[in-house]
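Box 3.1. Reading complex inputs
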Amino acid sequence: MTDSASSAMDTRPASRLSSRSSLRLFLLSNEFGLLVLIIVFAALFHGLANGFLSPFNLFALGRNAAVNILIGLSMMTVLATGGLNLAIGAMGVAAAMACGWLIEGAGLAWPLAVLGGLALGAGLGVTNGWMVVKTGLHSFIITLATMSIFFGAMIFLSQGESYRALPAVFSDLGRARVFTFVSPMFLIAVGTALVLSVLYRYTVQGREMLAAGARPEAAEMSGVRVERTVIACHMLSGLLAALAALLLTARNGAAIPSMAGQLGQDWLLPAFLGPVLGGTLLQGGKVSVLGTCLGAFLVTMLTSGLLLMQVGAFWVQSFLGILLLLAVMIDKGRRSYLRRRNLA
Amino acid sequence: MPSLTRFVRTDWFGPLLACIVAIAIIQSVSPTFLSLANIQVLLLALAVNALIAFSQMIIIAIGQMNLSVGAIGGLAAIAFAGAMEVWGLPAPLAALFGLIIGLACGALNGLLVRISGMSAFVITLATLSIYKGVNLGITEAQAFYGVPQAVKAFGSAVIAGPVPWLVAPTALVAVWLWFMLRRQPVGRFILAVGGNEHAAELSGVSIARTVVTAHAISGLLAALAGILLVARLGVGQPSIGDDWLILSFAAPVIGGAVLSGGSVSVAATLLGVVIVAIITQALVLFSIDPYLTQVILGGLILAAVSFNRLRESRFIGRFGRA
Amino acid sequence: MNGEAIFEARDIVKTFPGVKALGGVGLSLMPGSIHALLGENGAGKSTLIKVVTGVHRPTSGELRLDGRSVDFGNPRDAIAAGIGVVHQERNLIPRFSVAENIHFESFGANRFKPIDYRRLNESAAEWLRMLDLDIDPAMSVTELSTARMQLVEIAKALSQKSRVLLLDEPTASLTSGETDTLFEILRRLRDNGTSLVFVSHKLEEVEALCDRVTVLRDGQNACESQSAEGLTRKDYVRLMIGRAESGSGWRKRDTRAAPQVLGLDDVASGLGHSGVGLSVRAGEIVGLYGLVGAGRTELARVILGQEPVTQGTVRIDGEAVRVADVSEAIHRYRLGYVSEDRKGEGLILQHSVLANAGVPIWRKLAGRFGFLSDATVRAAVLPYLTRLEVKTPSLDQTTANLSGGNQQKISVAKWLAAGVRLLIVDEPTVGIDIKTKAYLHDLLRELADGGTAILLISSDMPEIVALADRIVVMDAFRTKGSIENDGDYTTMSEKIMTRIQDRTPSGTSSGIGETARCA
């Protein structure tokens, strides 16, 4: 906020942002940066590792990216409120296991079981949101506790047993290919992302989520029902986590209690990587659906490429940690640049 | 009776009461609960779990959080075991090596939090993944079995009666932490930064130095917990630390720690650890599904934070925005 | 008292983006004196305090200590130079003992050397004794009353060898007994040679306490460091507001025939209001005047349904209603609220102009399933943004980048777009340049002429007198009757002050009865 800039503003009437500065803004955006990185790394891996761009690898990449994108979007919906959600993994696995039980234990048809799983995810999300709103505590500690509760209850009820006798439709979805190299799972993730884009840009509900996240006091004073909106954000998060876990179930051909690690913690890193790389603000109030998708895709691609280059799977985990640190630092630098230039 | 009121109002009175009630109930249902063998099991769990809780508590004191407590503990544990097996280092040197690694990891957390100005949550999530990856990359997920006999002996020896040697380091740490947070400027700085960062800074406290110090201590304590666990288990498991996260928060929170910082208590946290250990133990005694432990731990955290919140809101009402 | 100044500020200029907060201000502090720093909200007092205490660096100008030029890079430098400040927000460390808070500074020497609490307590006890305070130094500050916390802060500042001590509205949350104790202590400090700066809105306190005075107005000195001898409260008011008449632009408007939009009858609330009565008719501007802390903003929260009404009736359009929450107040009853806390509550600074102006009408504009496009919102709000001459490079501009005046225009425009019937305006012109201020005043009149009922909350008396048709006086969470405004500042300020100082409870209740009936 410099003097010269603000005085310049005062002399200009309300008009569209000049196209030059909007181009500059786009070039400085996370989305553009991620796109460049994806292209650069794709070329790099193509040159270094044989078969990186082979139809099968692209297909596998799409399947993994689908899950990572949904996990990232699930976190993003709660980051929009300025909170976070540690229980994503636990909610997702619980939903997938519920779906498995509904098919194998209760004998329901698979579409109903899938709906049941999604509903459980949404319900657990509502539980989180309700507690955050009613206690006024930070979502960190609430979701830390519910992560333990949801996961413990899931393991207790399932006794740690997987559901492996799922209908063929699950493994078919995991195996199917469109145009020889695209997984329908990837298309589901992209479709979900499109729906979310529309939600945040073109609906009252989405806009109110962002308003409530950016400045709850101001949003409330402008007529937004902040508490209800925050609960809705958590519900959306649960729904997306459930969808991610169901896709993972399709890929594995089974609902496995350990598919997100101890307490579902294995999902935490990808859940933050996508949104943070994509430029979603941790303080809330701003999300980037496209950025989250590109971020999740980049992460998936890097993982796949490094594995193809025979880098041990364990080191890849360290590498992703470093990537998150880098993203945070770069974001900090970029933001202070934008602030100095009075662009954002 | 002012001394009684004072006693009732101390931060550890509530947890102590909860502890005694829990013991009394369980003892009345299952008289074997306070048998010597059971007490020893309790104390062994306590020795490690208290350090895990302290490691998180010192970060809660500055109003932050540390997700990498378990990852640091695991890395220090395999460094300790690996140094003995692969390099043939004597146990004390290997332990020192593990502690230094823990200290360094913690200090790195603190530095990164300070430099980036980002929430400690994201930073320690990233370093959690880095430390864990290094751990697994080195061990390839295989345990170090070459832990010397002397170390294993230390892990199972008793001082007297049911009191194992393993509690000795933990007891020393508890006393040191208590002294530091009560009497030493460095400890008071940590609490001051958590209580009112602005006021602390105006009084000449270096926020950066204090934050890094707290994180370094956290890393050191996590490392010590990992090392003691290696002694108890007799193997250097790469998976050490994987299940510490919930526990590390549960005990301080049950002990009334204020998550926004500035108010933690060594005694109350210790009692929080005892409560968690008693309940876990009771589940075993009553042959309740051990899987339910997670549910109960989560429930305890929720109950404790809600209760603390009620207490704190009365306090904030009078103190203004603290 | 005569002699060299301890501390001087010369020709201090401080500019912020879009705003010149201080335009060449001077202040000179003598030892053994209590110096009043006066000015309306937005006159530049707090900016000057921040410059003096090292929070802000002046854009130009010079600070001199003992005749030598000094430069404070941060608040620590100012403290080290002997300039202490007791702010409104507490700068104590919660749960630490009184002694520790007083001497926290001295711990830095060795980080590991155990603290000798006995010596600490003894030394703190000395400072407390010096202030004649009966406080156990080992007690936790959290257990103290607000007044005593403040006194501990003074003790802390003195222990830091402060020779200049700034007190920023120290009496804002004190009872009159506590205030007397504080004044006694301040006088003793003055007699011991400390130079005190007293910032307050309460002129009777200034009259009772201060021997020198500086008044700021619109970022300039209305008077600089002159003796308070012979000056009366009237003179202060004149200096603060510049012109005694000041009721510029007021014109008589008759709304007696108009229907009542909002009526409060003997309302009590969970926030501590009791016996609140007022009425606003369509097209009427009712001023709600009171000192800081009188419960006016809180009353707005009660009307908007954010806080519960525990007793009495709230009528909207003559019908008794119970507003469940703010959302209902806005969407169902069409009330609007322009917050005094523009940056915290009024606007979402991080979001665009378009998003901010549109929030209250999103629901109204949305189609099926809540679909809504930018174009729809733009079409709905642009006329109002244009009418209010909001200056922004684009509607997509982040609101944080606009000047205070433009921000305030947006927070008014959004209610115009929403077509509210009652607009509650809370301190609308604090921190806003004169031109925009005059513009907003015209706008509020115009709005009222168009039939909108306006409840204007302000502690800026000239503003209230210039705008309101009637003035309701509020003190200590009660209304003290309403006064017809005749636009003459001198007589009106006189009348308002009499109402506020009238502490008899019987007078209060009769006042309310009157208001309630006139509704």
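In summary: Chain B touches chain A through 48 residues (CB under 8 Å).
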